[in-house]
């Protein structure tokens, strides 16, 4: 069991070092990458936990590191510009229909 705990700590530490190196400045709270890597490597358990806590809070808060729609594309039925263009095109191609009262 003791060996498993050591392997777990090493694995989390390696994961955190790679994650720090791939992170943006906003995710690191403006701290230099080297300082985060040093903290993760020098303080074996608390360093990775501190990084994971900061990373989780920054990424889950939807702060400046994420786009408003989180990289998802919106469907055309969610785009009012698309709907108005579609309606206008429909009116041009089929002039017999209108939104007004029926013709007598």
Automatic annotation (TrEMBL):
Residues 12-52 form the Cardiolipin synthase N-terminal domain. It is found in: Cell membrane. Keywords: Cell membrane, Membrane, Transmembrane, Transmembrane helix. The keyword Repressor does not apply. Residues 82-94 have a biased composition (Basic and acidic residues). Pfam families: PLDc_N. This is PLDc N-terminal domain-containing protein.
């Amino acid at each position: 069991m003791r060996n498993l705990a050591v392997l777990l700590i090493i694995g989390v530490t390696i994961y955190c070092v790679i994650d720090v190196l791939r992170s943006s400045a906003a995710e690191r709270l403006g701290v230099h990458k080297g300082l985060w890597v040093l903290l993760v490597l020098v303080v074996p358990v608390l360093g990775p936990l501190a990084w994971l806590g900061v990373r989780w809070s920054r990424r889950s808060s939807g702060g400046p590191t994420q786009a408003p729609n989180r990289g998802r594309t919106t469907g055309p039925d969610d785009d009012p510009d698309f709907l108005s263009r579609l309606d206008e095109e429909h009116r041009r191609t089929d002039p017999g229909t209108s939104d007004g009262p029926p013709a007598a």
